[in-house]
Amino acid sequence: LLTAISVERCVGVLWPFWCRCHRPKLLSAIVCSLLWALACVLAGLVYFMCDMGNSGHCWMVLGTLCFLNFCFFTPFMVLSNVVLFIKLRRSSWQHHPARMYTVIFLTVLFFLLFGIPLSIQIFLNFFVYISFVFEVCLLLASVNSSTNPIIYVLVGSYGRPRFRGSVKVALQRVFEDR
């Protein structure tokens, strides 16, 4: 989903008129639905292959997950965010919703710092398994999955003397479309 959001924001900044006039209205919903379906299929495969004791196929499924995550989704996410960052830095005459881009940047940054090590470690498990390193990578992945709500609340409440509103107000400020 981070990849889809990053690519969609990049396309929206690079070709704003196309996005407003010609982009299919249900494209985001369709892409998100397909990504959720892919995630459910892959999670189901991991469950049935790994938890049911079929370890030979388990490593094949985990290897496929690592490949998709590390070699497909992550490069698209990083590339689209780099292009977005360069485009926004060069076009100083336009007003951009800074909070939304801050959220995207921080989410991607924390994903790269905390989420990617697990994919690398699972790939390295094909060659050598070190229990402590794997457990640290699992901890980092857990931290990564809990950082997004914190990022949303902190960015949504940034610039206020004191955080007086609710979490709902902070989230509305982050995602408001001006």
UniProtKB/TrEMBL annotation:
Q: Which organism is it from?
A: Mesitornis unicolor (brown roatelo)
Keywords, sorted A to Z: G-protein coupled receptor, Membrane, Receptor, Transducer, Transmembrane, Transmembrane helix
**According to Swiss-Prot or TrEMBL, what is its membrane topology?**
Multi-pass membrane protein
A single Gene Ontology CC term:
plasma membrane
Official protein name in the record? Proto-oncogene Mas
List where the protein spans the membrane.
Answer: 26-49, 61-86, 98-120, 126-155
The G-protein coupled receptors family 1 profile domain sits at 1-152
Lineage, opening ranks:
Eukaryota, Metazoa, Chordata, Craniata, Vertebrata
Gene3D superfamilies associated with the record? Rhodopsin 7-helix transmembrane proteins
- Subcellular localization, per the record? Membrane
Say yes or no: keyword Membrane present.
Answer: yes
Which Pfam families does the record cross-reference, listed alphabetically? 7tm_1 (PF00001)
Q: Name one GO molecular function term.
A: G protein-coupled receptor activity
